[in-house]
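During the reporting period the student researcher (J.K.) took over the structure-prediction task from the postdoctoral fellow and processed the backlog of single-chain submissions. One of the processed entries is reproduced below for the supervisory committee.
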Amino acid sequence: MPAPAIDSKPLRVLLPTLGSAGDVHPFIALGLALRARGHRATILTNPYFQPLIERLGLHFLPVGTLEDVDAAIADPNLWHPRKGFEVVAQRVMVPAIEEIYRLIERHADADTVVAASGISLGARIAQDKLKIPTATVHLQPAIVRTLVDQGMVGNMRISASQPMWFKRAFFRFVDWAAIDRNLKRPLNDFRATLGLPAVDRVLHKWVHSPQCVICFFPEWFAARQPDWPPQTHLVGFPLWDGGGTALGDTGAPGDTGSSVMSLPAEAEEFLNAGEPPVIFTPGSAAATMQRFFAESVETARRLDVRAMLVTNFQEQLPRDLPRNVRAFGYLPFSELLPRAALLVYHGGIGTLAQTIRAGIPHFAVPSGHDQFDNAWRIEQLGLGLSVPQARYRSNRAAKTIRSILADPRMIRRSREYAAKTDSAAAVTRACELVEGLAVRLDK
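J.K. obtained the following structure tokens:
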């Protein structure tokens, strides 16, 4: 747990974030650390997370409704490679623009700073209009654009070897065809009501706070690019999922509220009954992944391995599971993954970070958003392999899992990178950057 701040006065820190558990848990880690340093931390997000946040002793302000979450999760296009962004924009980002702005306007005082996720656009507007010191927090490298070596944009590689004219044209096309098409008009319509000028190419440069950009990933995962904003700080992965290792290697001594969940008895029983299992999960917000689970169950049959299926929506699962396969709801991966052989998952950044920390190999099955880029980076590090969701079939999955588990170099590298992951240091550095915003309050 980060030590209390010595030279920093107590702050009111507003933490807006949108999305699933992988988007909210890092802000819980940050909020708990800020509270331990003497600050008042308030998370602004969907009421779905309100009971958890308040149980941890953090303050909460609602953005959207539970019905909004249900509608987004039920949309079959949420995980579509091309249509997924439109779902997120129209169902999550756009409805929250004015709501987040008004919450900040209403609750900010003279000692307030803001640290907001990159897609919480209302916070950037509040920074422009209200001049509240603000840090933009990015959880994944895919959202920080570069004309040098971007990695993957969707399932397309944008590399350092491609000509500059092509990359400039490519990003302009992406903005015109998808991003600004969904975000620009509603964003600028609201800005106009506040007397603010219109912005263009919303996620190109404007999305980044000109004061501070905090990237919750380490440089060995995504190397700093020369054309990233100069105010960008790569701090590392924050790891919090409700398990006993809430903030990294040592947990959170003296802060019992940071750990709220352990493995249920039935999960413990299964884990203790045999060899480390293969874990299959499509992510906490995936509710339309029937084919993923059907292929995964068949993969376990082909390999004759013990397997655990983890999902919040068990109606997706095949009706009859073989004896070596068990299904579970939400489980804290900080406790589960170190006891597993391998994780087969969607490539979400939060799950990815927990897998690296657990020291086990990855089998990523990306379908959209930042998942292709995350999966590509895992392969570049030699920590796992990936197969796109559209090509995920039991025969290919079984072959890939055999290959991973038979590769001693990959298993060794997984353990080496686990030792590089320092969640406590990442959260401490993020707290220091947030506290650094307070200098601007005195100007």
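The committee noted the following: The first strand starts at residue 12 and ends at 16.
J.K. will present the remaining backlog at the next meeting.
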